[in-house]
Amino acid sequence: MLLLKSVIYLFGLWIQGINSYPGEEKHDIGTLAGDVQNWAMLIQNYILQLAGDGIKRDLTQSYLDQANYTYEKKNGAEIVRQVKLTLGDYFSKKKRAAERLAATVREIHDDFLLSNSTAGVQVLKNMDLSFYRDSDIPSKLPEDIVFNPYFRTGVSLKQSSVKLPDEVPRNDPAVINTVYFTAKLEETFLQNARDDPLLRWQYFGSTTGVTRLYPGREWSTNFAGFYNDYDARLRPWYIAATSGPKDVVIILDCSLSLKGEKFSIGKAVAKTVINTLTKQDYVNVICARASHWDEVGKWHYFDTEPMSCRQNQMVPATNSHRKDLIEKIEKLKAGGTSELQKGFEQGLKLLQSSPRTGCQSLIIFATDGVDTDGEQVRCGPGYYTRSGYVPGPICKYNFSDVWDLVTEKNSQLNPPARIFSYLIVEDAELFPGNLSCSNRGSIKKLMNGENLISQMSNYFEFLSANALSNNALWTSPYLDSWGLGLMLTHAIPVLSKVTGKYIGVVGIDATLDEIENFLTKHQWGTVDSFLINNQGETIYHPRLKPSKKLLDDPIFIPISKLERNSKGHSEEFAIIEREMKAGKTGSMTIMKAKDGKQRKYYYAALNNTEYSFAFSLAETDMEFRRSQEPVDRSKYDESYYNLLKEYKGTLLREKLPGLWRKIDIRENEKLYPGLRITYKHSTIFLAPKTHCDPTKYMYNDNLAEKTYQAHMWINGKQPDLGCESGRQKFNKGVRADVLISQPIEEIWRTRQFESINQIKWTNVGFRSGVFRTYPGHRSSRGYDPTKRPWYKRTSSAPHKTSISTPYMDAAGVGKINTISQAVFEGMTPKTDKECETWKGSPLPGGCKCDLDSDCMTKVCYMSKAPGPNADHRRCSTERVEGVTGLDILYDDFQNKTMGSMQASDFRKSCQQKYNCPDGEPGCETRCYLFDSSAYLVMDPDFLLANNLDESKYDGVTLGRKEGEVMKHLIYHHGFIKRNEDTDFQGSCRISPDAPKVTLEGIPKTPEESDDYYRNRGPIPKFSSDFGCIQDVVSFKTVDDKLGRISVCRHYVIDMLVSMYIIFISTNSASGMITGNVSGPCMSGFYYVTVLPKTNLYLLVIEDWKPYKETLFYNFNCRIARSVVNSGAYRIINGTCAHEDDSSSTLADQGKCPALLDIEMKCAYTTASGLQLSLYLFVSSVIIALII
């Protein structure tokens, strides 16, 4: 028996060691468990007391509970019908404008041609200014250019201007004539603008490179002060209109004979072709060459392989794939043999792979055509003789093998590939010429890499001529080169009736923010909307980044990835997606949608476009409760719009005399430098979505008129009829939220508590977009409280008080934290009988409750709402009406929390230093607060961080500071869960981020931010950011893991405990996790516990001892922290994270445009380069002898 007990005892010790890691030491059991639990409660009480004293959420909730509400039944099908009409009309107007412009271009061009007219000048600068205004020449700009907020730059609304690419000769007769005859577009530009006030840029891009743009403007400059180059022929809207879908393989002769300038030209050819592809095309690039020996017998390894991240198939020519290929081409260096057979074999194989379009197959081949690579390239090993080393034979290539291979393989393709060869510098036309002419292509010789668009005219003219069509199209969204964000363009190719050739392309723009406004203005409750194209690619979705934050043309994400349910599946949604791609209208219910709840989708297609949109509604959205304005307005004071400056202006002084004195506007107060504020009142900001026309609001710079209209509406008594009436500027219910929240102003103004001087702002933001803040001040124009992190974080867990990580205040006064709480829609009281059906499960809003856990929302409170059980606590309603909060200076927040963490023995309080258990000095107690995403909210080091160095305190993760503890919490306890996702719209930097030295010159107040685009200089600020695909790592806490023993050890531990031999606990029943860590960065005994009524957790590390870095850098420590750090990391081959697994081609689907299948002129000199040189030499000798 003694032996058995000894074995079990040893087994118990082994069990204790199960959770240890190699090399980790075991420390004594900690002594602070009781203190840590006490500290957590003290900090939570401090936060709740601060929120109670400062926010006064209970009072705001009581105002909502006592408000009157009306019920509105929502019909999803009717909403879809209305949006289809309004959005369809928006697109139709753009289409009509483009058609009118295209007809005018054709008419004036053909008239000019038939009349044999000329511009009458031989030098462009001599042309009369009535015909020629140049965006690149200040002296030739339109004279009436003024800043226009609708275009975000200075424009002339009376005249257009032209833009010429840098590579196009300005005095070319074709260029001069194009500038001259396109001047007659002026009247059509003006007529279109009159017919559609929402029209943005109108333009015509000519085949000569000339772009005429209305309104006229000065071109933007780069950071060096030079005008940016622009060639319409390279823009997505032009290319998509003039060439149909195609499959393009670019084969580069990478052999050593091209070394130097020749290879630079070859790479430029490849890049030019890639830059003129659109996402409707497929592409790959092959660097063709083979290994060889050199003249001294050294072996040089080279291979032929496709350069895309997917080597066995074509890739869509999306922005990401084009950038990826160009980046790889830039890094290429000439070397290897001119062994091209494998290159063409692989290229023709790619043109048979899937996915591809199947519409047109094209091979672009760049070579110098020579059949030898010089003395350095040998096709065999050398050997030694008594006389010394004899190098292998010089390579001499038999190109007939390549011709035979291409003839055989190309005959098996459908459609067969046309080959366009570009001979670089040399005169060796035989090989590339025969290759092209035998495969219905063309050959051109290039002597330099300048103006390649014009030099490669055989290729580009073929594309436009072979797919000759005047069919209009809507492009995929792209970033506007002229600063208006994400654009869709209705592009129409224009053909001459005289020549039958392209004249150019006209374009009319539609901005994505306008389209988004059409969709979001019809949303309510938890309703979402999205827009996709007929390929299922997402154009707009709430989860996508706003276009203003994009750095490059967007990478389109399949809608199925964004509408997956909580388990990552989208099988049911696939039916909806299929219907939308087919252009159908309908509805469907999904029992477990993306949020894990039942949602009903209503969808429809937009006529005459490739787009479809949808709305998704939860069950609770079918009936909408809208708060009503108080009947008795006598108890409510006046509210003031946030643009305080305008109350002192001429207009409001005249129309509202004396009001500015009542407001008592202060400027440059100590706590609010650079701001205008009022201590006497709160102010109201109305987000763009509260306006009937958000676009007009955003681009209206008449701030005085805007302030007057808003002031009169929020304080007015005229009936609130909603936007549908066409007689008001604000959505229905906006004024109700303003009035209901008005009484909180006096409460905020007169409150008194200990930390009042450390509170910067107090506010409440409603789901309607109404935002009330105290002290009253201005908010930036595009601000929307419902899109702010504090609003989203709090509304996602409305039963908890939420605390943000520290961040730099917009006014530059220092680090602050936001503490926020949710307020719910007014209570809907229920009788006990109505609540009986929910017995045994969480109760809905309005039912009588005793504890928070009794309710669905986990919020049980005394409500002032009338009705049953008014004298008892009742559950809150399920809908969050808004979020109210305050901003507190970080220094005070930390000092208060740290001050409350005093150890009971007064020896191991937070930040207190003492001797380690081994008697050595240098240990201390470290304390942190972190949130449910493992971001640090409080860290002693934050207090020392420079306010301008935000990287030291904003968004700092627990893993970055305490990697060993983070590793334990993830892999040992399962308390923190690691998540990975791919961000196709990420942002990377060329150089590491650096702290700001000063805030001078950086917009830091709302007024400066709003006026930045107006006041900025002509030279843009330099940015090292660029768009990239990123692997996003994030973390989430799992509260269920608190207070549980790991399952894998449960049975053995129970057995041992029952025998009174050993007791082991890693997660105590009191909701605390403890553990020992010893790693490359530090050692100590840690405790983690929750602050249950908040989103925070307390981490305390007893006997914390850092390990000093050896030598210059503790690599092991850095690695330990980096593997458990969250963030976004660039994927090197990120383009391939975006999979295209389609197997059918456009040709299979019958979606390829009709082709003319034209025959091309193709001729070449049959002599080889060597033969031609010999012929010229002999000829010159004979001529010399004759002379």
Automatic annotation (TrEMBL):
<keyword id="KW-0406">Ion transport</keyword>
<keyword id="KW-0813">Transport</keyword>
<feature type="domain" description="VWFA">
    <location>
        <begin position="247"/>
        <end position="378"/>
    </location>
</feature>
<dbReference type="InterPro" id="IPR013608">
    <property type="entry name" value="VWA_N"/>
</dbReference>
<feature type="region of interest" description="Disordered">
    <location>
        <begin position="779"/>
        <end position="803"/>
    </location>
</feature>
<protein>
    <recommendedName>
        <fullName>VWFA domain-containing protein</fullName>
    </recommendedName>
</protein>
<keyword id="KW-0325">Glycoprotein</keyword>
<dbReference type="GO" id="GO:0005245">
    <property type="term" value="F:voltage-gated calcium channel activity"/>
</dbReference>
<keyword id="KW-0851">Voltage-gated channel</keyword>
<keyword id="KW-0106">Calcium</keyword>
<keyword id="KW-0109">Calcium transport</keyword>
<keyword id="KW-1133">Transmembrane helix</keyword>
<dbReference type="InterPro" id="IPR002035">
    <property type="entry name" value="VWF_A"/>
</dbReference>
<dbReference type="Pfam" id="PF00092">
    <property type="entry name" value="VWA"/>
</dbReference>
<dbReference type="GO" id="GO:0005891">
    <property type="term" value="C:voltage-gated calcium channel complex"/>
</dbReference>
<keyword id="KW-0107">Calcium channel</keyword>
<dbReference type="InterPro" id="IPR036465">
    <property type="entry name" value="vWFA_dom_sf"/>
</dbReference>
<dbReference type="Pfam" id="PF08399">
    <property type="entry name" value="VWA_N"/>
</dbReference>
<dbReference type="InterPro" id="IPR051173">
    <property type="entry name" value="Ca_channel_alpha-2/delta"/>
</dbReference>
<keyword id="KW-0732">Signal</keyword>
<keyword id="KW-0407">Ion channel</keyword>
<keyword id="KW-0812">Transmembrane</keyword>
<keyword id="KW-0472">Membrane</keyword>
<feature type="compositionally biased region" description="Polar residues">
    <location>
        <begin position="793"/>
        <end position="803"/>
    </location>
</feature>
<feature type="signal peptide">
    <location>
        <begin position="1"/>
        <end position="20"/>
    </location>
</feature>
